[in-house]
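Q&A log
Question type: sequence-to-structure
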Amino acid sequence: MQSRRGVGLLLVTLLALASARAEAQVWLYPEPTPIPGGMLDLDIGSDGDVFAIGAASGPGSNNTIYTWIHGGWSVFPGILARRVAVDGRGRPWVLTNTDQVWRYDGASFVRVWGAAATAIDIGPSPTGDAVFIIRTSGQVARWNGSTFVDVPGGGGVEITVDHQGEPWIVNGIGHVWERVGTTWTYRGGITGRDIDVGADGSVYLLQGPGGSNGTIYRHNGGSSWTNIGGYGVRVAVSPTGTPAVINSLKEVWSGFARRLHGDASCGSGERDCNVCAFDVRGQFRAMFQYGKRTNVEMQWTFSWFTTYAPSNRTPNDAFEDGTWFPSGDHVQGFVRTGSIQKPYAGSYSDNTLGSVFVLERYAPYPRLRNIITSLGGEGHPSGAHALGHYVGVNESDVVRIRDIDAPATTASWTDSSGEIRTSGGGFGLARLGPSEYLVASTNPGGGQSGARSTHFWRYSGALNTSGAMTHLGGNDHRLLPGGSYNTNENLSLITECETGQLYAIHTSGDADIYGDGFWRVARVEQATNGFPVLRTLEIYAEGQNMENCHLRAAATAYAQDNGEIETYCHGYDARNDSWSSTDAIAFRRRPADYSASCLTSCGGAAPSGACWCDALCAGYGDCCSDKAAFCPE
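Response status: OK
Response body:
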């Protein structure tokens, strides 16, 4: 059985293709093919899932279905096909060499009776996936949930579906037509052989018709097209608007890539790595959309005037909070580490000289073990992120990496691009492979208004050694309606087990003592310029309070050894306020309860947005009670 798939390569050589205009330039990369025969067809779903058909003896032949996972192609068993289209939940629809239509229902392929087709495509629409085919007669038809219904006036040889769920076609003489409402509109000026539209509305065409490679063109609106360079016989477009093509040699060249895959092979207890989490999106749906979570109120303790190594500072010095909120003195980041003996850490801002603190295991509550003074006079260390036994923060435009088992040791990672910028916006770390790490930083932070942006860097070398990072790029976040929802403060990076995809979990909220907060789930994807960007997937609202759970102050997500995600949120140190007058600071641990959810079906390998209920997974308790609610068709 297969899970949801991503696409990517870790290290690639860039090939810059010629372009008519600089702003139209697209970067394409060679992707490996799984068999010597190469690829026959390719599609990218609106949620980023990538499927391909291996080439056999010719265009009319059936062959194996493949999907992209962990930087390579994997067989998707169940049927042989010659064309493929992918819906918004990562499920393929295929055509056979006898023009039969089959669709994957989450457990197996089922035939769609009464339909014979030569082309198929699927796009998002306001009411769900819009599935269109071109019948063997050339007629365009749309799936209504049980059968295909003819669309008046439409006829062609190739079809695609745009981000509004409307079809575009290429007819027998290569003319391009778009359906707008009930009218077909000619998008002339060029003839084509294949066409595809991304979920962002980007339209790409391969010039034709003909049996050889066609030049790649991008639609500018109306009847205007731009030659972007490059050639192919099949084209597919990613949700971020980047094309991938199969050329006449059946090679796959792609500008779309989740090339930065997290290391999903990390075992429990590894010093420089976190274990992966299964079905990241599904777990957050279970925690927030369906209410399956448990709130556990906890504290950590300390003595205000005891000196703590290695900086020999007291909490009264390091956590001093002499004014009533709002204050610059607060817990800035709070994280779960991979250490059993030192399970928690965080960063603290005290306006003049910030710090990193480490908590040790102690009954009944964890207690303070170390206070590590920020370097460079930094009073506001940005966020915090734990990677195994290491904790990283952003201080004075430099990333500091600290070994919690040797807290006096600090490595410094520098950035020549200037994008790292100290802020309260959030900081994340992930291991990509041996001695390869990803850094993410969100800025600006604090009380600044406007959109946040998240940028990425790669660091090559031992985690605990100093060196220079390579800036990879980034993007602004999608704004939310109203006030503080325009901010994204804390950040966690999580690697998904099934796919190796990297997810960024942001939290933020109102700056008041009480108010609204939110969790933002995004995925690392590829922009048209080849840089990694974040694409928002879901946002979950949640109340917050100053006593023990302030999402704007400090919150994190962490994958436990079994792949289940638990979340933590921390309040401010408001020592002079009535709820924090003792030597204890409260936080909230929230493990989710998946006991009645089909999220863990098939041994935790169920794909995002789908449940399996078949003999292969019966031993893992599939067909669970919330299947209808959790995995609606």
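Response note: Confidence is low (pLDDT under 50) at residues 1-26, 322-327, 574-581, 602-633.
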